[in-house]
Write a structure and sequence with these properties.
Strand content: 15-25%
Helix content: 25-40%
Structural class: alpha/beta
Largest sheet: 8 strands, mixed
Oligomer: single chain
Number of strands: 14
Shape: globular
Radius of gyration: 21 Å
Distance between the termini: 16 Å
Order of helices and strands: EEEEEHEEHHEHHHEEEHHHHHEHHHEEH
Length: 396
């Protein structure tokens, strides 16, 4: 049994999962949150589903890791019997430097810290988790798996912004793409499911959660993706605007006297579904729309309009499409979103089976008709398993 402890760390919380990479099963999982507040919270779930929930002071990430270790010791599994061969860390931004899982060294930590300029909301939290894990597991290799790594295969025409070249090079302004761990896992799972020659397989993967992105994959390689230098570009999301005319920002700065910080907050936390409908969860948007809320109805229409626009553009870039996959919270669970996103793609050979699309199920499932030239799938993502496998694979 090759076991990896996967850590997904933010500035005031971290999630963890102990993964058996051989079977693909989670031996335990948990959440430590409200770090640095008066009272923190720690949830631990064992392999049988047994859950413990504690409230206690958790001053920093190091203390949080001790709480996690206590949970393993008290509620299992024992980290002596299921000793991790590595600790795998999700790191959002690897810039153009990291294109594969990387054993963490002081130099790598310094690079992650420097790249925080490109992901100030994410990389600092990941570093806190890495340093706490190094203290908790001093003899275990620490491995960084980067959200941006899968998209390092983007061609220059896809990642280059049409701005002053010297300025872009100086400040590393380019498209990097995100959700790469999920897109890699889902595209590989979909390819294995449909079989055939993977080298020529043309795929679209829609990762639709509170954050949302779509990636065009040819032969297992990312060739186009909707998120850009940051996770703000692209699709309409829970609280993020996605694509917007840059002149909107200039106008708001001049006429509404909004500062750079104000604009950052607006586009990242008060836009998307939240800005249009007042709620960020798609289930709440649809409930309001069903009750006659016109703002919620428009929010849904804008969301679907953007999905269709990207689908059409990426099918054109690929020269056609063989497989389309939906994943993440909205993609896996919302039949209406899937149906409406695909409704205009009959020209490309897409035919959705209404009964298959509405049917609940676990695992990978087909939601297209038998006659559809394009196979449309629901593929549950498993980023923790992907991180665990990548971390284990690079060990000697």
């Amino acid at each position: 049994m090759s076991v990896v402890l996967v850590i997904n760390s933010g500035s005031s919380s971290f999630k963890y999962q102990l993964v058996d990479t051989g079977s693909g099963s989670a031996l335990a999982s948990g959440l430590v949150e409200r770090i640095g507040q008066d009272q923190g919270r720690a949830v631990h779930v064992d392999a049988t589903g047994g859950e413990t929930d504690r409230t206690l002071p958790i001053p920093d990430h190091t203390a949080g890791f001790q709480v996690m270790l206590e949970a393993f010791a008290e509620h299992g599994p024992s980290l002596e019997d299921a000793a991790p061969v590595a600790v795998g860390h999700r790191v959002v931004h690897g810039g153009a430097r990291f294109f594969e899982p990387t054993v963490i060294t002081p130099r790598v930590e310094a690079d992650i810290e420097e790249l925080a300029a490109l992901a100030p909301l994410h990389n600092p939290g990941a570093l806190q988790g890495i340093r706490a894990a190094e203290r908790a597991f001093p003899d275990v290799p620490q491995v960084a798996v980067f959200d941006t790594a899968f998209h390092q295969t983007l061609p220059p025409a896809a990642y280059t912004y049409a701005i002053d070249r010297d300025l872009a090079e100086t400040y590393r302004i380019r498209r990097y793409g995100f959700h790469g761990t999920s897109h890699k896992y889902v595209s590989a799972a979909a390819a294995a499911f449909v079989g055939g020659d993977r080298e020529d397989l043309r795929q679209l993967v829609f990762h639709l959660g509170n954050g949302a992105s779509v990636t065009a994959v040819r032969g297992g390689r990312s060739v186009e993706t909707s998120m850009g230098m940051t996770p703000l570009e692209g699709l309409v999301m829970g609280t993020r605007s996605g694509d917007i005319d840059p002149a909107v920002l200039f106008t708001l700065a001049r006429r509404a006297s909004l500062t750079v910080a104000d604009l950052d907050e607006l586009l990242n936390t008060r836009s998307g579904l939240k800005g249009l409908a007042g709620v960020s969860d798609m289930r709440d948007v649809l409930a309001r729309a069903a009750a006659g809320d016109e703002a919620a109805s428009l929010a849904f229409e804008v969301y679907i309009h953007r999905l269709r626009s990207y689908a059409g553009a990426y099918i054109a870039q690929l020269g056609g499409v063989d497989v389309i996959s939906f994943t993440a919270g909205v993609g896996e669970n919302n039949a209406l979103v899937r149906r409406e996103a695909m409704a205009t793609l009959g020209f490309a050979g897409v035919e959705i089976d209404p009964l298959r699309n509405e049917a609940a199920g676990r695992g990978i499932r087909v939601i297209s008709t038998d006659e559809s030239r394009v196979t449309v799938l629901v593929v549950p993502t498993n980023e923790e398993l992907e991180i665990a496998r990548q971390a284990a694979q690079i060990l000697p």
